[in-house]
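Posting for a labmate who doesn't have an account.
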Amino acid sequence: MPMIWPKAMLAWGLAACSPGAAAAQSEKPTPAAQAIDPSWLSVDATSRTTTFELIAGLTGANGALNFNGFTDGRLTLTVPVGWTVVMHFRNHDGMLPHSAEVIDEVHPLPLQPVTPAFPKAFTLRLAEGIASEGRDDLRFIADRGGSYLIFCGVPGHGASGMWIRLMVSTSVPQPSLAATPPGQH
């Protein structure tokens, strides 16, 4: 009786180890377009305060390593310089703890928490994360213009794509929330 099974296993193993297969396994799939919920952002122009609902693990995108369903910088919160930013953080992920901090835009991305870009721009327990349905608030003044990241500090999460953008601008009159244009995330 011929031994077909070992030959089939050898053929499968060679195919799985081919350069094309390795490249396909390492690429992140293109996410479906995530809708932006207008209720995530509120603005009080009189007090120059914007409030953002920051939801970790909102969808299953990227294995739930996302903020508001967005990964890899595909969502941008823009605020004018000098405004107070309040982020109501909630961990919606039923499996993993998450955290958030605003960091300077750096590449490569850090593998763990780093010094926040603004005082008080971080949740408690940055490295350990906040358990499912846990909440915390970040409240800081965006007093320096530039490009920043809202980043999960749990080791490996941010580097795996769990970050969105924060732009602090001298030229915008009001805060806004928008999908990041292709090629800019």
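Reply:
Got it, the structure tokens are right above this. DSSP finds two helices and nine strands in the chain.
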